[in-house]
## 1
Amino acid sequence: MDPSWWRSHSYHGFDLSCTNDNKIVLKMPASSNNLFVERIDYTSQEIEIYYRSNHPPREFFDLSLSSSPLQFMPGPHNYNYTLFSCPYLEERLSYGFCLIKLGLYYLDNPENQTYAVNTQCSVDRIALVSCTKLHDYTSIPDISTFAMKKIMKLHWSKPSCRIAKRWARHRITSQFKDKLGQEAYGTVFKGKLSSELLVAAKILNNSNENNGEDFTNEMGTMGLVHHVNVVRLVGFCADGFIRALVYEFLPNGSLQNFLSSADNKNSFLGWDKLQDIALGIAKGIEYLHQGCDHRILHFDIKPHNILLDQNFTPKVSDFGLAKLCSRDQSALSMTTVRGTMGYIAPEVFSRNFGNVSYKSDVYSFRTLLLEMVGGRKNFKVIEDSTSQVYFPEWIYNLLEQGDDLRIHIEDQGDAKIAEKLAIVGLWCVQWHPIDRPPMKNVVHMLEREGDNLAIPPNPFCSTSN
């Protein structure tokens, strides 16, 4: 891996290791002092720490700086401190809460000692003769209790935090043995990072063909994304030949497992649930297109890449083919075709249909919607006697003629849901990108009640062959 890339995507100097007695140590940058880890919560991105030395480490205060990737949790017992460098005097040990002696620091004057003064105390009452002021720090937890081995919490904000590196590497290599599936660029395993958090680790294929581009691409993209309908990146591991992306585990697997006909009562989710799932997917894609600083084009929207949590909330996943562009960029240049056959928009194959843009994801979403309606792969044919008809065209012809969808539906309300999903899917199937609605409009259509959605222009009139 390119070292410059690693430095730009990690927290330089922070690292985890294990002691001989199986304690986890958090090493701080340029420090011989270590903080011990009591617990890591990957869900809330918190780490609980304590230390074993007699005096709090001087570097501990740097965690309050805005530049620190690890930050103290806000709390009612946080105080402001001023650090002083002073000649050592026995009487300075008797101020308790107000004056705390700190551990040795590699930049300290060897003849002096560093002290932390709580600014709530009157400096006039503290013997600071011959002392030099070093720095002011704000919102530090009460270090007088921390010195008594009290646990303190830190928070990290980026999922690419280097804290995950050694921890995840150990778990990936020794405990991820439950295979969940195979993706284009790697294998996905189920694992456990803590007693509370199950994860899915995508172990990327050991290939030098693209110099790890698939890994850096997905890592860089997922670090920007925070949405209920997009899978959450917990951490990553990149060490030697091991490259892995660690995601939240979603127990119901992919939508592909539930794409069955309404006749199959054992696996059919019901039309209300399918409508909720379709709306959630649309909101996730709309967020990727409009909700981030950069527009994210997924290029591989399909049922296999839609994961479902315990409540069947859908999450868009697998960003190995994704590309970033500015939000005002109307076209994207591509040197190779991206996506899965059957879901790839026409313009990705040929510019005769228009420019590649976020509308390419809209086309892929159409395929997914029509599969949800038909309970089958849309590119298989519908057999009716000796004729063979393209499934989306067959659906369009039924709607245009005012016929029902010839899908087993018992309730009239369910029939309206199926018809709405089909109409929205047909709006997204338009061959030319300019004729497809943006995902914001798709969301609005799916949220509408009633049966007043207009049927789109026939996209098959000149493509029946």
Note: Residues 271-290 form the longest helix (20 residues).
## 2
Amino acid sequence: MSWLDKHIHLMGVGGAGMSALARLLYARRVRVSGDDRADSPALRALQAEGIPVVVGHDPRHLEGVDILVPSSAIAKDEPELVEARRRGIPVWHRGDLIGALMQDNVGIAVAGTHGKSTTAGMIATILTDAGLAPSFVIGATPQPLGVNARWGVGEAFVVEADEYDHTFLHFQPRVAVVTNVEYDHPDTFADLNATLDAFAMFVRSVPKDGVVITCADDAGCVAMLKRAGVSAPVVDYGIQGGLWRASNLRANPLGGVDFSFTGAGIRGEVSGACSLRVPGEHNVLNALAALVAADACGVPMGEAVKSLGGYRGAGRRFELKGEARGVRIFDDYAHHPTEIKATLRGARQRYPLGNIWAIWQPHTYSRTAALLDAFAEAFDDADHVIVLPIYAARERQEDFGFIANALNPIEIARKIRHRDARNAASFGDALGMLLSQVKGGDVVITLSAGDGNQVGERLLEMLRR
């Protein structure tokens, strides 16, 4: 019996990546079910699509299940997972499932410490607009596509290749994109060397007839290639260097950025100009990576450029949630110092005279402790910073003892090198500060990979009253 004929149950199905997998399995007519610890819009969306998912983890959900796939956020001692192992139900890593889904396709895997959701979304959008009907699974929802996963009839399969828990090492892509490599996920990687080794293993899996696409401007990508010993050809891109190069960057009236580019395409030299609706130098690099991947897939450059011109971003990636009383409210998934810097720099580019509020929810005790000095330097482009309590995600406060107690909003705000860094003991406290001080023309950005976006949503709701 093929694995496609079995009942697959997903734990943590409300997460961005897991909900995408549920949609792909359902589209392939696999018997799929799932559960998550709390209700959410993502869970309700899956239910509305006809996918049987429920709130709460419970061993009773294992009845009739042939394969269990837990998300990386599921604790090892979760009773449902423990019971599955006791019963001998095969437990697959989510990377195993993605690898199985893309097995008979041309895999295009987009990795990197930052920018992989946006770059994967851009590539999937280009291939879709070009009529290639790709399959894709992405950790965010590209606005032009409207979904974070789709099963297509074409041969291309675009996947966001997450390094956490070494997920991307379960793939064997034909095209591998690495946007950048920095130290992150201290609960998976001991240090930068361990991170570089994992990315090197990832690109080493690309066959000789494939291609590895990396950023020439990124020191981590350069260091990774030196230790990787890849057999596939390497195509690099950048602003400062690379076979493909962007130049003449300038803000445009769309709130994004225009740039010119040249490159060594598969059919010879290419050049052109591109106009993006998303701001920031980081998005120029993301777009350039997408153009290189599109060229590798045979998409005419004119079509790829036109498609990028219509790309309006992805969910929780500098996403405009709304405007009320002249206050614009954005949400961004930034949870690493480099991501916060890039997001705020892009916001400053779009609103050079705006009064920018950065509402930051630190993500996990381990990351906050390991990168606190870098976080302290990340908020220069904001006018005001409000620090929320840490979102623990998969971690437990009691496992970190004194460190967890020291990582409270008051102490974290004191560490930030900024003229106006404040702390909030709760979402309500942050909301009170904002309601009493924001005014027309202000820009509020929630920076969170957890539930900190609720502050912006509540603010928008109250300003609209």
Note: The mean pLDDT is 96.
